[in-house]
Amino acid sequence: MSGYSFTFAGQRLVARPSGALWWSDRRWLVVADLHLGKSERMARRGGALLPPYEVAATLDRLEAEIAATDPATVISLGDGFDDDAAGRALADEVCARMHRLARGRDWVWITGNHDPGQVCARMPGRTRAEFPGIPALRHEAGEGADISGHFHPCIRLAGQRRRCFLIGRDHLILPAFGAYTGGLLADDPALAALVPQGLAVACGARALPVPLRQPRRA
To answer: CATH: 3.30.1330, 3.40.630, 1.10.10, 3.60.21. Which one for 4-127+135-213?
Structure first.
């Protein structure tokens, strides 16, 4: 699978077709919005019943990325779990698999709006980390150069919606990595305000860059 190499805030990065971000100089694999436990959370709250395979599907893709890149650190940019209860309800075998994936590397969980608590007590890694001298890593885009998730960006290509990275001057927004997560189109006002121009990099069999010029709004 071929990724798309680019420079953001002075850092050389690769948008991988899976939706993961590879930071080769630091050997960091960065993902956003895994939303582990979404099927359980929706069933618990009486919502639509989803096939109970999203955790396995998400971890299969994550395991493939770890095997391909051999990262020193894996960073989850928030909403690693669909809510705090979903994180606590994960099966023992899922937690054991996560520990196997983390063996020999660091793992950092940044909390998001879906998982504001200490949901990863049974998970490998830590929830706090300092990243000095580089673009801020956070769940939702803020001030200054940052790398974030939260919005689940996607783009229409050939009549299909495809998850995508959004690369602008101040913000790099990652697609949701989790299965069954849905998405927000890149021309939605919330995203157009953050990345008015730049690139969308569509995920799929290969990472496909598409110039992004948002329409002017009154």
So the answer is: 3.60.21
Domain map (residue ranges) of the chain: 4-127+135-213
Q: Convert the pLDDT of each residue in 82-127 to its tens digit.
A: 666 666 777 788 889 999 999 999 999 998 765 656 555 677 888 7
> Checking DSSP bridges between strand 171-173 and strand 146-148, what pairing results, if any?
parallel
CB contact burial 126-135 (16+ within 10 A = b; e otherwise): ebeeeeeebb
pLDDT in tens, 199-214: 999 999 999 999 987 6
